[in-house]
Amino acid sequence: MIIAERKPMQEILGMTAGMKKVLVLGCRGCVAVCSAGGDKEVSILSSALRLGRKMSGEKIEVLEETYVRQCDPEYLEPLRESGKDYDAVISMACGVGVNFIADCCRGVRVLPGVNTTFYGANLSSGEWKEMCAGCGSCVLHLTGGLCPVARCAKSLSNGPCGGSVGGKCEINPDVPCVWQGIYDKLTYLRQEQNLREITPIRDWRPAGHGGPRRRIREDLLS
Amino acid sequence: MIAGSNLEYVLSSGEFAVTGELGPPKNGDFDVVREKARILRGHVDAVNITDCQTAIVRMSSLAAGLIAMAEGVEPVMQMTCRDRNRIGMQSDILGAAALGIKNLLCLTGDHQKFGNHPHAKGVFDMDSIQLLGMVKDMRDGKRFQCGEVIKNYEPRLFLGAAANPFADPFEYRPVRLAKKVDAGASFIQTQIIYNVDKFARFMEMVRDLGLHEKVYILAGVTPPKSLGMARYMKKFVPGLDVTDDVIKRLQDASDQREEGINICVDIINRVREIPGVAGVHVMAIEWEEAVADIVSRAGLSARPEPRGIEPCLISSGTIEEVVSKAEEQIRAELEKQVDQARTEAAASRDLVTKEKEKAAGEISELKSQLDRLKDMADREEIKQKQLAEELAKTRAALEKARGVSEAGMVCKSIVEPQGVAAEAAPVSEIVSGEALSLREQRALQSINKGLEALRKILGLTEDQLEALKSFFEAEFLLHMGEGQPAAAASAVPEPPRVQIAEPVPELEEAVEPAAEEVAAAEAEEMSVEAAIEEEAPPAGVAEEPMPAGIPPCPPELSPDEWKRKWVVRLTARGNVLLHKREVQEAESAFRQALKIDPGYEKARTGLERAGKREAVPEVPEEKPASPEAEKEVAPAVEVEELPEAPVPESEAAPPEEKKPEAKRAASLAVEAEGVEISTLELAEEAATLMERAGSIPQDMIMEPASGVIQEVVIGDGEKALTVGGSSALPFHLFEGDMPNSPRIAYEILDMEPEEWPEPLMKYYSDVASDPVAWAKKCVEEYGAEAICMSLVSTDPNGVDRPAGEAARVAQSVVDGVDVPVILWGCGNADKDTETLREVTNLTGSKKVCIGPPTDVNYRTLGATAMAFQLPVVAATPIDVNLAKQLNILLENLGMSLNQILMDPSIGAAGYGLEYTYSVMERIRLAALTQQDDKLQVPFICNLGREVWKAKECRLPSDPLMGDQERRGIMMEAVTASTLLLAGGELMVMRHPKAVSLTESLIRGMM
Ligand code: SF4
Ligand code: SF4
After folding, report:
1. What angle do CA B899, B900, B901 make, to 5 degrees?
2. Are B263 and B246 in contact (CB under 8 A)?
């Protein structure tokens, strides 16, 4: 799941300065699950905006709406026209939604309402953790299912660095060393051989260093 | 051999290797790297150059590595994966190989979070193992990482990697090491080892995997510099296992640095015993000096002669070598030339001697001729008398005859005058009585002229001349027409010959032997210089005809030599004449010299001087007519002195000085044979600064101070000294006031000095064993205004004289002189406290100043001083803040600032004087312009002891360094004057002549 968090209020007030009419647009996808941009967060942000403006003695008209998803064109269809009525649409979807609105709805000014942070899991209520970096060439089969790309501070491929002590990462004792985890897991799985073999240098193109990525499935193309 | 690096050679030879570590600076300072490399050179086989360790931006490891290499230190270039992707890394690897780097240590690198750019994007395109593989493939597979072929010049690098036996998972560490070996590592340097047991277990696992056979393992060690550092490493450096034992050892140590080194050496000794350890990697970052010590204490100082270092930068050392070689060559060449010139000079000196002999011969011949002439004159006189008698007889006969026959008046006028035929004047009248023929008159005239010339040349008196004249005239008359006078005339030396003798114009009473010597020396010097200045004459010159005005060349000399001799002679004569103020003659002599040799410098300067003399008729022309003046031959010494500016130097003290000073000057003059340094008087400033400033507004040149230095009174009674009180920078009398001039105290020791050099010691050798007599001598003979007694005998590391005993000696000195006494402890805080307390118990509040309290014993010493209201000397090690802090501490104790003299710990000229100066200046500026009242305290500078321990004062006299005593005096005086200018108010000095010089400086400046 894509994890996001609402941008600081000040930043949002700043980017909407002088605007008279805005639409706060939520998404019922990932951002709703991670409590960053669902119906509830839309109304909270809207009230906050109104309040903020009132305090500075200005008037603003804030409308609220939440789509099922913002990353499919059919959901965005109504916005193509209605969006033009607003000074801006504040999208509370992940960065994908904001980009997609900007791409699809010409003449609509769209603003990001959240910071999209990582692909993570919900550890417990209120805590999310990065698990994958979308590197484009997954190695989890070699690492006991634990991702060294996303979860090792240096994205190491060949075992823990010299700073791994007591299962903690050198950068911060609050951060577990994923390579200690991988070692434990592989030892448990009796796949120690993986730890002995040298993992060759990575091709970083699938991770995005080869330019914007695209996925095509011929059979589904219409 | 893989790369042929020194490290590779050492390791493959089975030698126990030692590598070091060099952290490049956080700036572009070449010298920092060079200095560190120099410190490490010779103690290690190779040095790791870190690559922005702990992610802090530093000079790149490649650049620093090259600098190290230029200093003859083999670098192990470190490369991390944090900052560059594979493109950058491969590019740097190619560059490094091209520039002669042969070792590469491949690291992943610390996370950027640790460094000074935590916001940076970490690259981590690969990890250390992949990096090893990539470089190995570039080297052995001749391929870039992308697979493209490296056509030639693949980078040949000896590859290393790091291993941390103390990181987790412990069991996995040897496995990971194996991966590094597989990837291409030939040597391994481990993380810092403190936990040797754990390392031994690690090595056991390494051996189980057989890795010790495949890779050289160097155990990493670091001397903990302090307890704080050890604790920090234990707490905050992930993967570093600092044992409690190490912490405890440091805790218990009195000298933590020393113990740190010991710990390191112990660890080296232990890891050496572990099989598979091929060397040690000593990481003493920012403590490079420790490496030599560690290596030598570990018995590893005999490093194999380095091989394979091919620096592409030229180090300053190499340049120096080349330069010194060239210098040597040039020196040899010069020496040859000087030798040649010397031989030539010697030859011409011989010539001069010969000339002199010849001239002396001529002179003696002249003398004998003169004697002969005199003889002849005497004889003639007799003859004349006889003639006169005959004449008288004849006259008598005639008279008789006339009386008889009244016959004619023959010869009436001949006999008419007083009848003294010996008189010359009457002879002329005799002559005039008879008509002389024109030819005869002319002959007589020329004889007279010749005589006049002779007189001038020979310096005859009027009387002598008259005698001669009368003789010649008589002779002439008597032998008129018989050719006799010609014989007499032939006895007169011919003018040209007399002229040759001219440079040595002494005759009989006119001769002054000293003057003659100096004149000869002058002539010699000139001819030597002429010999050196002039090139060897071209072969053709010998045939050249002599220019006008030079007599023909004697056969034994070449025409050139003859000419040169003449130039020298003429110039010398010019100088002598000039000195006699015969300016015109002098000028013509110089002109003549210049005509022969227009390039002769001495003649030209002589001519210039002559010109000036004439323009300034400061002295009335002397009348050379008087015989005395004639006799006086100019002392040629002064001719020598002329080219130099007159130096106002006088051995005796100026008359207006006080009595003791005069006395001292006298005794100095007696004692210091051979050293002429005497009381100098500075020239009075012709115009004050204000006058010279003219119309420049005052506020542009003046910076009046807002603070005032405390006045501190030392001693009591009449001879009490007050120092300080100034409200301006030292000697800036135009800006403020300096009510008390700086003072000088003589330093004495409370025991016979052991290491005072002879030129200093000779002034005190008679009193050195008796401090009281010593102090008295200083006061009574040298006029000391204060005494500073160093209680050196109390030093626990030396004689360790008991405090009570030392105190009694101090007391007798204090009682023995009437000037203030400063008692200076031995520097051992505890002992000083004890001694000075004893002393004050004995002397009470009597004219004593004690010191130095330091930050260690200021409480006790300060309390003692307060009890007796004594001023103290507060000593701190050259630092503004420490000085201030000690003053504050003393003040907190209850002392008042006007009881404190600051001793900033000074250094002698050449031994940190400039640093002392700047610290003192900063203190003084803070005191005066920033109203930092805690620093408004006078300075005391104990400089004698610093100066006289410098080797420049101890080396014996030699031609290069000059006279030892003079050198020492100048060192002390120069140090003192510098400190005076920095604000020093009370100087503690040793050499009486240095004191005297310094005093005259003070007098001149106040
Ligand atoms: S290896 Fe790549 S794809 Fe797989 S979890 Fe990690 S980042 Fe995601
Ligand atoms: S400690 Fe572990 S997770 Fe952290 S950087 Fe090192 S290997 Fe990666």
Report:
1. 130
2. yes
- In chain A, what residues touch B86 (CB-CB under 8 Å)? 201
Q: What are phi and psi of B501, to 5 degrees?
A: -75, -5
B423, B470 in Cβ contact below 8 A?
yes
- CB < 8 Å to A205, chain B: none
Distance CA B905, CA B943 (A): 9
Query: Nearest residue of A to residue B162 by CA position?
Result: A162
Name the minimum distance, in Å, from the CA of B223 to any CA of chain A: 20
pTM of the predicted model, to two decimals?
0.51
* Length of chain B as a residue count: 1006
Residue with tokens 């008042």: B896
Q: What is the ipTM of this complex?
A: 0.93
- Give the number of the atom of ligand 2 that is nearest the alpha carbon of residue A151: 3
Which residue, B968, B969, B963, is CA-closest to B952? B968
Which single residue is written with the structure tokens 């207006």? B656
Q: Does B145 touch chain A (CB under 8 A)?
A: yes
- How are beta strands B872-875 and B900-903 bridged, if at all? parallel
* Look-up of token digits 């001769």: B511
- Stated as kind and residue range, the H or E segment containing B106 is strand B103-107
Task: Give the minimum alpha-carbon distance from A11 to chain B in angstroms, rounded to a whole number.
Answer: 21
According to the model, what pLDDT value does residue B268 have?
Answer: 97
Which two three-digit tokens encode residue A144? 């006991």
Q: What is the CATH number of domain B6-313?
A: 3.20.20.220
Q: CB–CB of B207/B194 below 8 Å?
A: no
Contacts of A182 in chain B (CB under 8 A): none
Distance between the two ends of chain A, CA-based, in angstroms? 27
* DSSP-based three-state secondary structure for B533: helix
CB B939 within 8 A of CB B903: yes
- Which residue blocks in B599-727 are alpha helix, DSSP H? 601-615, 627-631, 636-641, 659-671, 689-693, 698-701
Ligand 2 mean position, distance from CA B963 (Å) = 71
CATH code 3.40.50 for A2-118? yes
Secondary structure E strands in chain A: 2-6, 21-27, 61-67, 88-91, 110-112, 114-124, 127-132, 168-169, 172-176
Residue-wise DSSP of A178-208: HHHHHHHHHHHTT-THHHHSPPPPP--GGGT
Question: Over its length of 222 residues, how does chain A's per-residue pLDDT go in tens digits?
Answer: 999 999 999 999 999 999 999 999 999 999 999 999 999 999 999 999 999 999 888 999 999 999 999 999 999 999 999 999 999 999 999 999 999 999 999 999 999 999 999 999 999 888 999 999 999 999 999 999 999 999 999 999 999 999 999 999 999 999 999 999 999 999 999 999 999 999 999 999 999 999 999 999 988 887
> How far is it, in rounded angstroms, from Cα B290 to Cα B293?
5
* 3-class DSSP state of B868: coil
Q: Where are the domains of chain B?
A: 6-313, 338-496, 559-666+676-682, 711-1005
Q: What's the pLDDT tens digit per position in B268-311?
A: 999 999 999 999 999 998 899 999 999 999 999 999 999 988 88
Q: Which fold, B711-1005?
A: TIM Barrel (3.20.20)
User: Is residue A67 a contact partner of residue A24, using CB atoms and an 8 Å limit?
Assistant: no
Q: Where in chain A is the domain with CATH 3.40.50?
A: 2-118
Encoded tokens for B499: 């002229």
Q: Which residue is it, tokens 């393992």?
A: B217
Q: HEC profile for B941-1005?
A: EECHHHHHCCHHHHCCCECCCECHHHHHHHHHHHHHHHHHHHCEEEEEECCHHHHHHHHHHHHHH
Q: Do residues B55 and B116 touch, judged by C-beta distance below 8 A? A: yes
Q: Does A160 touch chain B (CB under 8 A)?
A: yes
